[in-house]
Amino acid sequence: MVLEEIGGRVEPRSRVDQPCGGRYVPRTICLVPGSEPLWAYSAKLHGLTTISFVFDPEDLREGMAETLPRGIEFLPQLRFSDDVLWQIGRLLALECVESDAPSNLYAGHLVMALIACVARNQGGYRSCTRGGLTQKQLNLVLEYVDTNIARSITLGELAQLTGLSQSHFSHAFKVSTGMPPYRWQLEMRVRHAQQLLLDGRNTLAEVALATGFGDQSHFTRVFARLAGATPAAWRRDRRA
């Protein structure tokens, strides 16, 4: 997936000496088997930023059983464009490169959305229409997130607790709580952080570490976005 072209246009090729053919497509996306080579050619290009995703078919079948039709096969496409798919890829790239502590839950949701978008592009996507989690499943998941507040949790872990595929679990969790799992985890971390801040015995760096944030700057950004004030200002106001 081409994220940025500088000074020219890129042409994907399956062979170095074989032009791709067809018209130029901005934000070029290619879907190829992992065993096949892929070349990016341009005579004038000054800069190029790309991102590649490699998927295991078995993982796809297990993680998105209710969303992808049984036996679906993704057909190779050397050059196409899809604005939604490109935006999802860009968000994944930003999460991996710019985030101080990438969220496994958030990245997992983006990956599922990316796969569903590829399947839709090839006519193989279907929506999950099932309801929410049972109360027992929901309690089990929330307790697990609370117990593991200081570490990054994957979508697969939570889905396994409920016996559901990742796509079904993600949908059911949002139906039950009104938000995706990664957002719930962030808000729970902020609530735990508020309790530690009120205690007053921990530094901001210690609070960040205890609630699963990579460092104090990441903690401050997330806390301010969800609580409406930086951790220092929030604690100062409560003390006053």
Written overview of the protein:
By secondary structure, this protein is mainly α. The chain has three domains: 2-121, no CATH class; 135-178; 183-239, Homeodomain-like (Arc Repressor Mutant, subunit A, Orthogonal Bundle). It has ten helices and six strands; from the N terminus they run E-E-E-E-E-H-E-H-H-H-H-H-H-H-H-H. It has helices at residues 57-63, 83-97, 104-121, 135-147, 155-162, 166-177, 181-199, 204-210, 216-227, 231-239; strands spanning 2-6, 11-13, 29-31, 39-41, 47-50, 77-80. The strands form three sheets. Strands 1-5 form a two-stranded antiparallel sheet. The protein has a two-stranded antiparallel ribbon with strand order 2-4. Helix 7 (181-199) crosses helix 10. The mean pLDDT is 83.
Please describe the topology of this protein.
Elements: E1 2-6, E2 11-13, E3 29-31, E4 39-41, E5 47-50, H1 57-63, E6 77-80, H2 83-97, H3 104-121, H4 135-147, H5 155-162, H6 166-177, H7 181-199, H8 204-210, H9 216-227, H10 231-239
Antiparallel strand pairs: 1-5, 2-4, 3-6
Helix pairs in contact: 2-3, 5-6, 7-10, 8-9
